[in-house]
Write a structure and sequence with these properties.
Structural class: alpha+beta
Number of domains: 2
Strand order of the largest sheet: 1-2-3
CATH class of the largest domain: Alpha Beta
Radius of gyration: 17 Å
CATH topology of the largest domain: GMP Synthetase, Chain A, domain 3
CATH architecture of the largest domain: 2-Layer Sandwich
Largest sheet: 3 strands, antiparallel
Helix content: 25-40%
Number of strands: 6
Order of helices and strands: EEEHEEHHE
Distance between the termini: 30 Å
């Protein structure tokens, strides 16, 4: 179990503290929903969690097999819908994978991305198209 404490700071902003590490992050409502858009919105964190989770579990599998994926990147584009309620409608994912990998490694890593815990936790009504680009040069963040 991991505990996260979240405090409402006012002005549609929150401060969240990760129990085990004491790392903190802030959220702000987006411009299109009465906020200033000066930080991640709560739904932005869902998109961030999806991309981070995919790369993390792929990293676990790559490490186990001795495959190098350092420098790989993910881009997630979040689209909101408002009918019947405001919610995330689509999270489109582009994974740009660094390094050279054979077909077996690619298939294993792609399957791993699709089965990450965050992906598995999202409702089936959220569209999650995932695109892979293989053999891209590694880049720093």
């Amino acid at each position: 179990m991991v505990e996260i404490q979240i405090r409402y700071e006012g002005g549609l902003r929150t401060r969240a503290v990760h129990g085990p590490s004491a790392a903190a992050l802030h959220t702000d409502a987006p411009l299109d929903n009465h906020g200033k858009g000066e930080s991640f919105s709560p739904t932005d964190l869902v998109a961030t969690a999806l991309g981070s989770c995919m790369l993390t579990v792929m990293g676990i599998v790559a490490q186990r097999h001795g495959w190098k994926i350092e420098g790989s990147r993910v881009r997630v584009e979040k689209s909101m819908v408002s009918d019947p309620v405001r919610r995330i409608g689509k999270l489109e994912v582009w994974l740009t994978m660094a390094g050279e990998h054979d077909e077996r490694a690619r298939a294993t890593l792609e399957r791993t991305a699709h089965t990450c815990p965050v992906h598995q936790s999202l409702l089936p009504s959220v569209e999650i198209p995932v695109h892979f680009e293989w053999g891209a040069p590694a880049q720093s963040a």
